[in-house]
Amino acid sequence: SYPRKVGNHMKHNKLSAALWALVSALFSLTAAVAVPILWRGWYAWQVGPLGLEAYTGWSRETILGAYGAVMDFLVKGGPFSTGELAWSESGRAHFADCRVLFRLDFIALALTALLLLAALIHLLRSAPPIGARRVSPPLLALAVTAGVFLIFGTWAVLDFEGLFTAFHHTFFPGKDNWVFDWRTDQIILILPEAFWARTAALVAGLTLAIEALLAALLALIRRLRRPKSIYEDILRSK
Q1: Which has the closest alpha carbon to 149: 192, 214, 207, 209?
Q2: Burial grade of 151 (CB within 10 A; 0-12, 13-18, 19 or more)
Q3: Are 195 and 50 in contact (CB under 8 A)?
Q4: Pick from 96, 111, 237, 67: nearest CA to 172
Q5: What angle do CA 98, 84, 52 make, to 5 degrees?
Q6: Closest to 228 in 3D by CA, of 216, 220, 219, 236
Q7: Alpha helices in 89-229 (DSSP H)
Q8: pLDDT tens digits in sequence order for the chain, 238 residues long
Q9: Residues in contact with 131: Cβ distance below 8 Å, sequence separation at least 6, in sequence order
Q10: Residue 59, Cβ neighbours under 10 Å: how many?
Q11: 100 neighbors 74 (Cβ within 8 angstroms)
Q12: How far is the C-alpha of 68 from the C-alpha of 40, rounded, in Å?
């Protein structure tokens, strides 16, 4: 009967909404993380405002050259280098660990993008579901992600160093090579905490923006494909 179909659809809708909310959140986060990794202009834009030339005594060209060399290693898999700056084996090992995380981010981004594309194709090719108003997975992801970011944002404001330390203990368990000595790994001088705080804010803002765009896209598709009347809805259920 029609009421039974509505009830079954609502149960299925809640489970699928939770799954697709997770996929939407992972896609948005990994895409946001990929932006400062692939867009080197983000770092170049920070050199002046952070006063890195005055702080380190190095030229802008030296700073950008060191950053570019490290990113070539992390993204392109080239030989490790920090340009004209000194580095140690411990520092190189940490960046090798970072390279693994970068690649995992790219893999997760590709997989979630394919899943979202498959969901979009299915949505466009299938008949609109019947019954009650459906949950928007991207909107659900947006609400949950905003809450999580609010918690971590508050933590960052109150104790950024504590959050920074907890992050490294989580993603680099059992290792301490992320604690750099500026005398042997000079790259740390051009990557101050302020840069990481700004990058975290960029990632958070981009993640929420992407989730909002996904929610708007889904809402538009649903509106265009919504039955024009209850009679059309009933006919599609038969």
Answers
A1: 207
A2: exposed
A3: yes
A4: 96
A5: 75
A6: 236
A7: 89-125, 137-171, 193-225
A8: 445 444 444 555 677 778 888 999 999 999 999 999 999 999 999 999 999 999 999 999 999 999 999 999 999 988 999 999 999 999 999 999 999 999 999 999 999 999 999 888 877 776 555 544 567 788 888 999 999 999 999 999 899 889 999 999 999 999 999 999 999 999 999 999 999 999 999 999 999 999 999 999 888 887 876 655 555 554 455 4
A9: 5, 6, 9, 10
A10: 11
A11: no
A12: 8
pTM metric for this prediction: 0.85
- Which one, of 27, 26, 28, 45, lies nearest residue 199 by Cα? 45
Taking only Cα atoms into account, the Rg of the chain, rounded to an integer number of angstroms, comes to 23
How far apart (Å, rounded) are the C-alpha atoms in residues 143 and 215? 11
Tell me which H or E stretch contains 176.
Answer: none
Tokens representing residue 22 in the block: 């997770």
